[in-house]
Amino acid sequence: SHHAVRGDAHLAPPRRQVAEHPPAPLGLPHGSHQL
């Protein structure tokens, strides 16, 4: 249980970043995203 709670908290911050960087996983360059 302790491990699960810690994992959820750790997965929360990274998930937010992923949403802000949708083009990253798509395979597009960071420069194009900013442009």
How would you spell out the order of helices and strands?
HHH
Overall strand count: 0
Q: How many DSSP H or I helices?
A: 3
Strand content: under 5%
Query: Terminal Cα separation, in Å?
Result: 44 Å
Shape: rod-shaped
Structural class by secondary-structure content:
mainly alpha
Radius of gyration: 14 Å
- Average pLDDT, all residues: 56
- What level of helicity do the residues show? over 70%
Organism: Nothobranchius kadleci
Keywords: Kinase, Transferase
GO molecular function, one term: kinase activity
Protein name: Calcium/calmodulin-dependent protein kinase (CaM kinase) II delta 1
Describe the structure.
- There is one protein chain.
- This protein has 35 residues and is an all-alpha fold.
- It is 80% helix and 0% strand.
- The radius of gyration is 14 Å and the shape is rod-shaped.
- Keywords: Kinase, Transferase.
- GO terms for molecular function: kinase activity.
- It comes from Nothobranchius kadleci.
Short précis:
The protein is an all-alpha fold and 35 residues long.
Helices, strands, pairings?
Layout: H1 2-20, H2 23-26, H3 30-34
Features of the shown structure:
35 residues, mainly alpha, 80% helix
